[in-house]
Amino acid sequence: MPKVYARRVTVAAGSAAALVCTLVLGTQPAQAAPPTPPDTATARTYLAQLTEQAEGTLDGYSRGKFPHWSDQGNNCNTREVVLKRDGENVQTDGKCAATSGTWKSAYDDGVWTKASDVDIDHVVPLAEAWRSGARQWTTARREQLANDLTHSQLIAVTDNVNQAKGDKDPAKWLPPKTSYHCTYARMWVSVKHVYGLTADKTEKAALKKILDRC
């Protein structure tokens, strides 16, 4: 067994509070790996094509209008599929629920050995999607976004970091790990492009600034 210890790390990004990361020595844990988003040049093109529009209201929104985590077959739901995909040496309860493993969060390089310390982040948050056009969708379409394993919409990350993100767009929040900003922006733009979601002025400007530096 590798040696495991914990230390407290202060994350100075947005409203993220100090959090405890479990660091595992003597091993190279799996990096969270959603489907690879389009390259930077393509992301710039997609960003320019996004309809610029002020965010809509949250009136009527609830997470229940984006059903998740949906059944993915073989006794697995979407969360469990992502935990297996993004983890290393993932052990289950004999069905599909992860009981142990190692997960490295791409957002902050936190390493975790308990599934309960890991959140599955919706890269484009569900509330953000609602304000950007999903309010008009069918429930089936919203369920597709909330459980999308085909595009770069779901990723296993440190729970505290995900909670600090909330429903903020890239103008208000970016992963603490600055070297991941380019990938994050490509992921965000790709999802909004695929689903025909809008982007407000400050969001587009923030994304353009990131992509222009990549």
Question: Can you characterise this structure?
Answer:
With 214 residues, the protein is α+β, with helices and mostly antiparallel strands. It has one domain. 32% of the residues lie in helices and 20% in strands. It contains 7 helices and 9 strands; from the N terminus they run ββαββαββββααβααα. Strands 5-6-7 form a 3-stranded antiparallel beta sheet, covered by helices on one side. Strands 1-2 form a two-stranded antiparallel ribbon. A two-stranded antiparallel sheet has the order 3-4. A hairpin with a 2-residue loop joins β3 and β4. The relative contact order is 0.21.
Query: How much of the polypeptide forms β-strand, as a percent range?
Result: 15-25%
Number of strands: 9
Give the mean pLDDT.
87
Tally the structural domains. 1
Oligomer: single chain
Amino-to-carboxy terminus distance: 39 Å
**Number of helical elements:** 7
The major β-sheet equals: 3 strands, antiparallel
| Shape designation | globular
Organism: Streptomyces rimosus subsp. rimosus
Keywords: Signal
InterPro entries: GmrSD_C
Protein name: GmrSD restriction endonucleases C-terminal domain-containing protein
